Amino acid sequence: MKREAEVTGARFERAAIIGVGLIGGSFALALKAAKACGQVVGVGRGRANLDAAVALGAIDVAESDVAQAARGADLVLVATPVAQFARVFQALAPVLSPAALVIDAGSTKRDVIATARANLGARIAQFVPAHPIAGAEHSGVAAAKADLFRGKRVVLAPLPENTAESVVRATAAWRACGARVAQMAPEEHDAVFAAVSHLPHLLAFALVHELAQRPNSAQLFSYAAGGFRDFTRIASSHPEMWRDICVANRDEMLVELARYGAQLESIRALLAAGDAAGLEDVFARARAARNRWLDGEYDF
Fold it and tell me: Shortest CA distance to 12 belongs to which of 181, 170, 183, 179?
């Protein structure tokens, strides 16, 4: 059986990873495992994290300067929190080679694309926006793993300026990591992920924060068990990253919060009325929908 890089045709001589955390580190490890790249240069804000990335074999060279890392690269992944993208794109624009492909791992797309247009200038055609639908509640390169993207979706949101070749190369890079690649318009992407990703994170953070404010919080947490752990797992995610996502996609998140609020009010009314049959009907429909999702019925 051919290795993934051979199947997809992906091969990059120098990859620059801007933001060597969970996503950036896993991307580098996956490319290396697929033999889809030569040298990998990593950029990060913390020396300890960069040293760990070198020790883990995720990157070959650590840099503190974005421009220096990207100079001569034929693939650049921007995997910082989205609020840092403007600074990163500003640094990339003067040093990108004409053949360099730039992709990102941002969880929002409209703001990322606007930032890219404002800062990449004539290099905008070299940027193919992307969002890997993979992650974990832990951050940093120590949590990175080569198979993080295997079997997971990556959404591309190609720009009108992108050439067909650039989109093919971006697709090949992610497929070399084992991902399944789909495409969405930026507006559709942000609306969809506000509902199924951004809102759940906000709710998990909110619940843990609310309980932590109570005078008997220590007692509450001491009795919390599996259900609480499962529901709030993602509240261990990176606060800075999720702050940026929430602010960037706040219009769609406000829509989703209103919808969820209406659902909670409906359930509150059933509970206040002691409507056991109504509550059971909601729970049964929810369980059936989740089971269909787990069985892959909604996979397309």
Answer: 170
CA–CA distances in Å: residue 134 to residues 139, 144, 178, 191: 12, 11, 12, 18
Contact call for residues 249 and 193 (beta carbons, < 8 A): yes
Read out DSSP for 141-178? GGG--TTTTTT-EEEE---TT--HHHHHHHHHHHHHTT
Task: Give SS3 for 279.
Answer: helix
157: left (phi over 0), alpha (psi -120 to 50) or beta: beta
Token pair for residue 277? 């049959």
pLDDT tens string 18-31: 999 899 999 999 99
Distance CA 151, CA 296 (A): 13
User: What digits encode the pLDDT tens for the residues 114-163?
Assistant: 999 999 999 999 999 999 998 665 667 878 899 999 999 999 999 999 99
- AA letter at 47: R
Domains of the chain: 4-184 (3.40.50.720), 188-294 (1.10.3660.10)
The C-alpha R_g of the chain, in whole angstroms, comes to 21
Q: What is the pLDDT at residue 2?
A: 34
| Phi, psi of 51, deg, nearest 5 | -60, -40
Distance (Å, rounded) from C-alpha 10 to C-alpha 98?
18
> Which long-range CB contacts under 8 A does 58-62 form with residues at least 24 apart?
58/17, 58/20, 58/25, 58/28, 58/29, 58/32, 58/141, 58/144, 59/17, 59/20, 59/25, 59/28
- Do residues 287 and 280 touch, judged by C-beta distance below 8 A? no
- Average pLDDT along the chain: 92
